[in-house]
Write a structure and sequence with these properties.
homodimer, alpha+beta, eleven-stranded mixed β-sheet
Chain lengths: 476, 476
């Protein structure tokens, strides 16, 4: 019976891509518009983003950063100042050529990222060691001219934060890069319940203009990896290109050392693909727009609605609480809020009122329990914590199950032929091996984990001596 | 002595425009970049915007609205769907013509406002009377290709919120338009301490595509008016152009009735020009990034810094509290935080510690008082409220002082020749009179106030019968 209500969602195992599209649109997260590759983030999706943003913004401020806002447009000549950077981004920027009815003398690029704007500003405001560090962050929209797009995962325009910092020394910049990677990992694991692998990108995969890129990588339900957030160490490359110098304590001119780090709406895609099931979304309580949905049962009976609204009023003080007192059938409502991934459902009808209780149903396990009125708040609080923890544990378990090792190329290829997930394998450090692997298997290096684990001594591709262990995967 | 420190700020009465530029840059609100007409909003300016945004966002949500996010780009054909709208905006939009290295088949406009995107979406999601009202809001950046720009007041790109709502009836839409104007007036008066005149725009001054535009108008220190925020009633004009229809309770197809309303970073410009003085900014406590700045006196003496930091820790729980323990001279610090408009300064030195007191100095009046340690919190709380109220009262008084009346054209012209401010005068309702007045005096109609006050029976320009009383002014 209940099954019928979700017939509109394709089964995950049948067609994961279609399941994803069904879920993001039918759970009212996004809608399409006539703007190619762009999405409309609907109230339910945006409330989710606001919760994630709120948690991350708090951590960004607690770690000493200040928010600023830079212009949307970048003059072409400014974008060209750092060679690797422009090479990396030129193929994917949108160009403004006309303002009103006039043609511009210089094209303006719609920011794909804002390194060059921050650099130009830093050159203006940094003069002495007293001005350092500068720890800035910006929340904004950016545009990348992607050919193939999917809501949240890859869109022409997306929302993000980009941190940009300047430091007196290379060590301090490196420390900052690692600190912000840790903040990202914390938000992913503690708030979104997404387990991550922290590590470095290879040279081939690093950010255009960076000396070093750190990443957090996550495994989706289908065994493909998703780069969830990145943190870059620039050294003094941009500083030299832009002339950002300070006078040190000894009166000598020095270049600053920089970082940048970004976290985007893409993480919503990760959350969906890590926790969702055939009934729809499952949203971790800490970021859920609605933690608890109250559904009055037999609401036409005297006293039920009054009681339900009283509960709503009381519980709203502690939890993000919704109520659906519409005239739709209970079965429709159960399925609707399951599809929307609301962590807890509270049912209350005439019998429950008589017995002084309510019914709580968990979205993650489907478990149902009867809870006395006077214990409701405590029990809801405990259950939300349990759900949060359970979602992380389940995802972590699945990630470990889907993490394999390979010590030679045959084994490597075979594993990816038969299974999907992470493969841990040694790598000699040569881009040629990465390219060969990508061409022959579609697999990319995801990261070199910080722990420095080793599983053999030879490169899984060429067999030469290898020091670095890499997480490999097919990726979004 | 103190005077010397602020010699870099031009006197307001000498050159108000230069005073404004000095204040916004020297108080670290903004910086310029190589992007023409755009500004960098620096940490101090952005923290101010975050406080304003936070207060307004709360009220927008309390009044039942939901936040969403629409695309940055609008295809040219979509923008053209409502005739008056495109006519009004075409001259001031930026056009994207290339993505990566390819020329686009259709130009994309960078949103100057998002009516058409909301309309396209509403057509998709509204079907029945049960879907109404739809009360959406978005926080975003928009671009208008302005020729002459000034930080906050008129920039190529600015930040704002834009509300867009759909209703079953014209009356409901009108009610919404008025409700949101009231919310704007509340934020302006209660948070920014800016007194406003609420009223309607004339047809000539209304929004492109609107049936009716409401506005809140404020008077700046130099007697020029500033349109501080607007709220538009669209009737069913956009609904007809986009085919947004719903089935009513009787099964009949009806067009929806719409509104839109916007509040921008421009309000920061208003706040500066209403409250500022020759020493710099004065920021109302409710939106001040720092409400209270602690300055340790003779900080090299034992115990002073420890004591100051303890105070900071304690007061931070209740107030946005800063401390400047740098080795700069007290005189420099006094002037720096006066320039930045911090509402209260707390000084504490060895003698104060001995006497168990601290010194509080108000930014608005310069008044200084000694307050016993155990009464500090209460006194700070009271003073911040007093400052907030005093700023509003002073601004209101100034506005009333600078509001004149005129019953004939000679009197009208003479008043604007000799004085600056609002002139209340009757108007026949003809655009010709508005145009004549603008051409001959540079004065524009600001609004027809909601109260319907009358001061004579003849149009101040043509002498014909007149029903409407208009606030006239030179404006930003």
């Amino acid at each position: 019976m209940a099954k019928e209500f979700v017939k509109d969602i394709t089964s995950m195992d049948e067609d994961f891509a279609q399941w994803y599209t069904d879920v993001v649109t039918k759970a009212d997260l996004v809608d399409y518009s006539s703007v190619r590759g762009s999405m409309i983030i609907r109230p339910y999706g945006y409330a989710l983003w606001e919760n994630i943003k709120g948690a991350l913004d708090r951590r960004i401020k607690e770690t000493g950063h200040e928010n600023v806002y830079m212009p949307l447009f970048i003059p072409e000549s400014l974008l060209e100042k750092e060679k690797d950077h422009i090479e990396g981004f030129a193929p994917e920027v949108a160009w403004v050529t006309h303002g009103g009815s006039e043609e511009l003398t210089e094209r303006l690029c719609v920011r794909p990222t804002s390194e060059v704007l921050f650099c130009e500003h830093y050159k203006n405001i940094i003069h002495s060691f007293r001005d350092l560090p500068k720890l800035y962050n910006q929340w904004s929209n950016v545009v990348r001219w992607e050919k193939t797009t999917r809501p949240f995962l890859r869109t022409l325009e997306f929302l993000w934060q980009e941190g940009h910092t300047c430091h007196a020394t290379d060590e301090e910049a490196l420390e900052e890069t690692e600190k912000m990677l840790d903040v990202y990992a914390e938000i992913a694991e503690k708030y979104l319940a997404i387990p991550v692998i922290k590590g470095q990108k290879t040279d081939k995969e690093k950010f255009a203009g960076a000396k070093l890129t750190y990443t957090i990588e996550s495994l989706m339900h289908d065994g493909k990896a998703l780069q969830t957030a990145t943190s870059h160490h620039f050294g003094d490359g941009f500083a030299k290109a832009f002339g950002i110098q300070y006078t040190d304590k000894d009166g000598k001119l020095q270049y600053v050392h920089q970082t940048s780090w970004g976290f985007t709406t893409r993480v919503i895609g990760a959350m969906i693909m890590v926790h969702g099931d055939d009934r729809g979304l499952i949203i971790p309580p800490k970021v859920a727009p609605t933690e608890l949905m109250i559904l009055p049962i037999a609401q036409h009976k005297e006293g039920v609605l009054d009681h339900a609204y009283e509960l709503k009023e009381k519980l709203s003080a502690k939890f993000r609480t919704g109520i659906d007192a519409s005239d739709k059938k209970p079965g429709w409502k159960f399925n609707e809020y399951e599809m929307k991934g609301v962590p807890l459902r509270l049912e209350v009808g005439p019998k429950d009122i008589e017995k002084g209780q309510a019914v709580l149903v968990r979205r993650d396990t489907g478990e149902k329990e009867f809870v006395p009125q006077d214990q409701l708040e405590t029990r809801i609080s405990d259950l939300l914590e349990e759900i949060q923890q359970n979602l992380f544990n389940k995802a972590k378990e699945k990630q470990l199950e889907k993490t394999y090792t390979a010590t030679n190329y045959e084994e490597f290829k075979q594993t990816f032929d038969q299974k999907s997930g992470f493969v841990k394998a040694m790598w000699c450090g040569e881009t040629a091996c990465e390219e060969k692997i990508k061409e022959e298997t579609g697999v990319t290096s995801r990261c070199i984990p910080n722990e420095g684990e080793k599983i053999s001594v030879e490169c899984v591709c060429c067999g030469k001596e290898a020091e670095k262990m890499v997480y490999w995967a097919k990726a979004y």
